[in-house]
Design a protein that fits this description.
This protein is mostly helical. The chain has four helices and no strands. The protein has one domain.
């Protein structure tokens, strides 16, 4: 999916989501993108566009870093 399409879809739908629910909507949108083979590292390039999307992307990046750290720890244990 192209960058302009990812941002464009978010722009269209966020206006229909009440402000109090936008963090949740952004989290679901990022999960949707990940489920459609968008890499977390690619999502990092969208940081800075929208506060709610930024928060959701940071959560994914942090989770990925924690997962990578856990894998390294397990490799060291063997």
């Amino acid at each position: 999916m192209e960058e302009s399409l990812i941002i464009g879809v978010w722009d269209v739908f966020k206006d229909y989501v009440p402000e109090k629910n936008r963090d949740t909507a952004a989290n679901h949108y990022v999960d949707f993108l990940l489920g459609h083979d968008i890499e977390p590292s690619a999502l990092a390039s969208y940081v800075g566009y929208d506060v709610h999307l930024d928060h959701a992307i940071h959560l994914v990046i942090e989770d990925e870093q924690e997962y990578d750290d856990e894998e390294e720890d397990q490799d060291e244990d063997y």
